[in-house]
Amino acid sequence: MILNTSEIYDVVIIGAGQAGLSAGYLLNQHHLSYVIFERGNIGESWLNQRWDSLQLDTPSWMNCLPGEIPDPVNSGRFTEAKDFYQGLVEYVRINDIIVKEHYQVTAVDKDDSTGLFDIETIHKGEMKIWLAKKVIVASGTLNEPVIPLMSKELPAQMMQLHSSQYRNPDQLPAGNVLIVGGAKSGAQIAEELAATVHKVYLATSKVGRIPRRYRGEEITKWLVGSGNFDMKGDDSDPALSGNGAPFLISGGGLLGHTLSLQGLYREGVTLLGRLLGAEEGKLLFASDTVDNIRFGDEVSAKLKQMVDGYLEKNGIEAVEGELDEADLPDPTGLSASPDTELDIAEHGITVVIWATGLRGSFGWLKLPVFDQQSKLVHEQGVSPIRGLFFLGFPWLRSRKSGVIYGMKEDAAFIVEQLLKQ
Fold first, then answer.
1. Same domain as 285, residue 208
2. What range does the domain containing 252 cover?
3. Residue 322's pLDDT is what?
């Protein structure tokens, strides 16, 4: 049985992460009627898709939502993910943001005769249709794990889990670990496991790297000041923008630290190329490890050159950079393993962690807002369907759109556009 509501909301928001909650806060300021539907808990991805020790990789002064101001005492520290989740829950309570948890949105369509959106949800087995004048999709692009088909080629007895399912070393069986994917999640999990009894093998990939500190300051101070976070996706230098992906860096520890492939090597991690598959009890890898290490080095060097240029142009005096061993380049690839295959039994590999990313799931969006590559069509978050908006997506308006730091500006822009329509 489907229940139809008679109330017509001004706005329905889908997703109660930092993006959806930012929009809710601003809608409160404009006294609009709205509701936020969340498939799980408030901040679901922070609660159930992160490992226990994860810390945000931007300092706390960059993690404020609308209405919040940085704590001057702890502004340079790095928040634990679980504390950020608790902060989102408190943000909802303090600001009276209206959230319905465990309401799975199963369809969004628009009735051309009324101009209203129909939002179908399921909650505790009950299906219901809600009506709204406008909709903000803030569900993000990190809700469906991506696991390559080659996972089916691995031995049946081998434990396999996605990085979003990894919590801590204690959940792993005895034996050694292969982590597939050299971006932030894979590298940070590799670093954690390298300090345990597990021997770690990392199948790397091309990911840009930046130092945690440079010229006497935490690097994000220079990146924000120089406009790096304001770069647009269509006119940015791939190296300076992270090649469209997050930079390799860590917020681990009180003040964070530089994370590099060669640094992981010094911690005991075996660096391999891209995983190609498995056959006859062996794992097969590409011979691109050296290239992947060199790519990280080149991005770090280019970003530091950009910072130097910014400092010089603006007459800013800064100290010379201190020695950072993790950021020292490895031009000849001495830290790369020459192996392109590993015998699974011989190397005692019992676990594979797929740090291969997540993607958005939009099968419930029953509107013509996808291009031929199934990507969402929009102009700075404003869709071609009147009254439909997107918020919290990578490169929505600039590089910072995909991180917490961009929420204040992007949410204000989207709500402004919503009010105009």
1. yes
2. 146-354
3. 79
